[in-house]
Amino acid sequence: MATTSAATPPLLRRVNAGKLLGVLSTAGVMTGTGLIEATGLTRATVHAVCNDLIAMGWVLEHDPGHDAPGTPVGRPSRRFEFNSQAGYVLGIDVGAAKTTVLLSDLRGETVAKSGRSFQSVKTPAEQTEVVNQAVLEALASAGVTDAEVLSAGVGVAAPVDREGNILVDDEFWRRFDAGLTSKLSELHGWPVLLENDANLAALGERWRGEAQEVDDLVVLLAGERFGSGLMDSGRLLHGSRGGAGEMVYLKLVDGVGDTAGIARTAREQGAKAVADPSVRTSLRSLAAAAPVTAEMVFAAAADGDKVALGILQHVAARTARVVATLGILFNPELVVIGGAVAAAAKSLLPAIDDQLATFTSTPPRLAVSSLGDTIVSIGAVRHALNYVEQHALDLQLATRSG
């Protein structure tokens, strides 16, 4: 079979279309000259590929604009814009307790959000149905059909390899190996892309959060269980089987001992204090009508409760050791604490920061995520958009009426 080192015309066309879409998807209206400067392509190539993308529905052409004052008079510049309404993507977070779904346009702007609890779920089939109902709710609220969805990213709290397979060596991880992605694809017809939740959180933070422009990054999901998404030189790390960033090793770390996250540790320490009648704490009155929560511990500490303050000192010391291990092993520029606990964890940053320097000579910068409980879903949207940009020429766009 004959081979050639030169790129074939179809491959060149795909590469050039990808370049143009990559520029247009993050910009406003651009002239042909602007696209030439941004991509390095020739004028003939830019116009030919834009014509293809216009015909496919990816790009809109506006009325010709006028050149800037002082430039030679000639034919008005063609003006192009990415068609962000050409389709939609879904970002789905399948957590241990609930699912959160974001529906976004092709610029990543959220057009609908929904969520469902897994409280009464007992089987994988029931979990899939709950996720599907949340998806249907998001689609219905925006008036979007299955045909208009181009891809869906899904995050789970388990290691996922580069081919989208879950590592099932741990009993907790096996709970997420329920055929969810194949079932959603079967029901709706769009590609469903599985990824680890912390990896998606890293994608989300670098795209829309505290880590924009940061290439060496760790996002530490710190709610019920510690988990980390690792990014080196702007590239996600997976490991041979998807286990990069998993934190079972914390069982071996002195002063940590397990993977329990900030919320779980605060809650369990608070419940222990309340259960001891000899301990005087305002947590007892806060928990009079409901079990102790991490939020109660943070609230009591903010009001000066000594027991709650002691619990948070313990949490900060433990978290500092966790962050230090990440700093030593991966030497990131920034560690972002994310998940539902992030807002409350902001009060812990000074204490964590003070202790980091005692554990490592290269302590990373610390921040807390501003993305809240959508951190994984936002990363899942970015994951889905990456797929769309890479496969744009293979995707069939639905035509919207009206």
Number of strands: 13
CATH superfamily of the largest domain: ATPase, nucleotide binding domain
Please tell me how large the radius of gyration is. 24 Å
Strand adjacency order, main sheet: 6-5-4-7-8
Biggest sheet features? 5 strands, mixed
Q: Provide the domain count.
A: 3
Specify the CATH class of the largest domain: Alpha Beta
Q: Assess the beta-strand content as a share of residues.
A: 15-25%
Mean pLDDT: 90
Question: Which structural class fits the helix and strand makeup?
Answer: alpha/beta
Low-confidence stretches: 1-8
Assign a percent range to the helix content. 40-55%
Helix run count: 14
InterPro entries: ATPase_NBD (IPR043129), ROK (IPR000600), WH-like_DNA-bd_sf (IPR036388), WH_DNA-bd_sf (IPR036390)
Family: Belongs to the ROK (NagC/XylR) family.
Protein name: ROK family transcriptional regulator
Descriptive report:
There is one protein chain. This protein has 14 helices and 13 strands. The chain has 402 residues and is an alpha/beta fold. The protein has three domains: 9-82, Orthogonal Bundle (Arc Repressor Mutant, subunit A); 88-206 and 376-394, Nucleotidyltransferase, domain 5 (2-Layer Sandwich), CATH 3.30.420.40; 212-370, Nucleotidyltransferase, domain 5 (2-Layer Sandwich), CATH 3.30.420.40. The strands form three sheets. A five-stranded mixed beta sheet has the order 6-5-4-7-8. A five-stranded mixed beta sheet has the order 11-10-9-12-13, with helices on both faces. Strand 10 (227-232) and strand 11 form a beta hairpin. Residues 1-8 have low confidence and may be disordered.
